[in-house]
Amino acid sequence: MKVGAVVAAFLVALGGMAVAAPAQFVVISPPVCKSDAFPLIPFLDSLRVELAAGRLDCCTLADPGDHLPADGSLQVQIEITPCVADWERVQVSAQASADEPVAEREISLADVIPSARPRALALAVAELVRSLEQGARKPPPSTIAAPAKVSVSPLPSAGPAVPRVLEAVLEGEARAYPRRETTMWGGRVRFTASRGHLHADLDCGADFGRAGSDLGDVRLRSATAGIALGPRLETSVAVVDVGLRAELGWAWVRGEATSTDVGTGAGSDLISSLGLRVSLAVPARLKLRPRLTLESGAVLRGFEGNVNRQPAAGMTGYYFLAGLGVGVAL
């Protein structure tokens, strides 16, 4: 009986040692979110390099969504939050065994360029794995205590995020009025405010144009102010603003004769228009970035310059506008 009791006690102690044995290999559960942009293979290659000097074998790939760690394994679950194509945040959880607490952290990669994200994510996961591995090597306490959550320091970001609540844009533009075969050249200053997926623009500018004839030239000038409102589509590569734009201003016209026998005149009047504007800014993550603007619409109140009582130039009908400039985040 004494021998049986000793053997039973030895088996119980041996079983307790097996349960307390630290994990020997790392199992990675890829994201359940099916995002083609998630760099699984580069991430695994970088993680193997980071864990090469440790005692854990890296890495075994498990089925997505498998949260139950196998015996002798350290389970790492990765999930994209939210599940979108242009992902910027991942949720990482790790567990050494079913009886151990789950260590979790959220990693933001918004300020890391896409090519460096596999390496940055591997550094964060390796840090989490090493913290759990070191905790498993500590001798068990003499008294039973509640497991404490593992605290992991946040991954240092590549740099501070650039706020884009307000942006100033300086651009040159060309505006064509096909009905009167008139082209206006000028410049514009625009201030863009954004919040969420909406943006609002306020701009002012001036344009100059000239049309020639046998009797002389017709010179046009205009000063306008506009306001636009619409949706903003922002990715890690570009920012696209689409909006309905209304414009109000004042136009001047003056004639210049080629001979003294021809009379000339001048005048001015109110002008207005309504159009659809599309603006593209790349790259999205820089504070200083170029912008391309395209716009088309209709003239609500126009202005013309006549030569011998016939329209020679003017801002009437429909128009096309193209602008190229640079924006600065304020």
Structure description:
- With 330 residues, the chain is of the alpha+beta class.
- The chain has two domains: 20-137, Rossmann fold (3-Layer(aba) Sandwich), CATH 3.40.50; 166-329, Porin (Beta Barrel), CATH 2.40.160.
- It has three helices and 15 strands.
- It is rod-shaped and about 105 Å long.
- It starts with a helix and ends with a strand.
Notable traits:
330 residues; alpha+beta; Rossmann fold; Porin; 2 domains; eight-stranded antiparallel β-barrel; 15% helix; 49% strand; rod-shaped; disordered N terminus
What's the domain count?
Answer: 2
CATH topology descriptor of the largest domain? Porin
Q: What percent of residues adopt helix (DSSP H or I)?
A: 10-25%
- Rounded mean pLDDT is 79
Count every helix, treating DSSP H or I runs of 4 or more residues as helices: 3
H-E order = HEHEEEEHEEEEEEEEEE
Q: For the largest beta sheet, what order do the strands appear in spatially?
A: 6-7-8-9-10-11-12-15
Tell me what portion of residues adopts beta-strand conformation.
over 45%
- The CATH class of the largest domain is identified as Mainly Beta
The termini sit apart by 84 Å
